[in-house]
Amino acid sequence: MKTSSFFIALISILFLACSPSKNEYLLYVGTYSVEGSEGIYGFSYNPETGILTQKFVTPNQENPSYFEINPAGTHLYAVSEVSDFNRLDSGSVTAYKISESGELVKINQDATLGNHPCHVCVSPDGQTVVASNYTSGSLSIYEVDENGGLRAMQQLIQHEGSGPDSTRQLGPHAHSSQFTKDGKLLVAANLGTDKIYFYERADNGMYQPASQPFVEMPGGFGPRHFDFSPDGQFLYVMNEMGAAVTVLQKVENSFQTIETVSSLPTGFDGIKASADIHLSPDGRFVYASNRGHNSIAVFTRQADNGRLKLIQTEPTRGDWPRNFVIDPDGKFLLVANQRSNNITAFAIDQENGKLSFTGQSTELPSPVCLKFLVKNKLGGGSSH
């Protein structure tokens, strides 16, 4: 009897050891339609090594430069960063269903009624999609139907104003937007007006300026992307033209600026064109991409007051790092180097947050957007 129990236990251990992981990690990559790019690429990702293996590609020759996956991991929404969609002076957003294999199936496509949409976000409940039209300086808001497709545009919010840079800031340039975790606020960054805007949803379903309509960034800094701390009490804004991170703290019902910290090493006098920003999953570190300097800036973050300290600027082993992503396990950071046509992988030191190049570099035409999806092989998925 004891021998039988031993063999049953041994077989169970071997079965578990040999069984494949119940999760499949996918990385979706958005591109510009140049250098032979075919559209949106899908890769299998090894979470232990950071290695990518191309799995499929979704044809799209309309600059699918940014997309977002809904929280349920069932649909993907991609902008087309163009100005001539369907004979209109407009870009567009396309809704895709994510199939069981991870491949994308187009549902529908709608005009943004603004030029060169460069960013899209999805509300926490998955029911609202917002595109940021860079050249036109506007936000296009859509409701999602029962099949995950886009309904006709619900609202177009037009920003107004300019900034001190006579070349880059003659008019508004909406660059990104996100919802707060509770979905109560829609937050938008505008490079042309040096402002972070706040909107709330009215009883009629339309978005209107919140009680705090905006926060101003330093003049001429050009806010681009931003990220929230895990507790939602701090907002970290990547200023493209100023190559610096501005930290905002929530005080009662408003956000207040507490500091602005350079993302470049002291003495650097080259091109300033910073791009993306993300916090580590545990909120201990902040990472930001520097185009021109071609690096990822690493900051330590003080949990009590949200302040930052620059501890590393790691070369990206590529040219013009645009978007980057931290993998779902927080072990690796992957960078889309637009001009050198490659994606590079870096291991994250779990103690100090610093990056080290793994040697992994995946060639791909003009990569500019990276998003992970963890699919449970028993069904379902979740976006990261």
From TrEMBL:
Keywords: Carbohydrate metabolism, Glucose metabolism. GO terms for molecular function: 6-phosphogluconolactonase activity. Gene3D superfamilies: YVTN repeat-like/Quinoprotein amine dehydrogenase. GO terms for biological process: glucose metabolic process. GO terms for cellular component: cytosol. PROSITE patterns: PROKAR_LIPOPROTEIN (PS51257). PANTHER family: 6-PHOSPHOGLUCONOLACTONASE, 6-PHOSPHOGLUCONOLACTONASE-RELATED. Belongs to the cycloisomerase 2 family. This is Lactonase family protein.
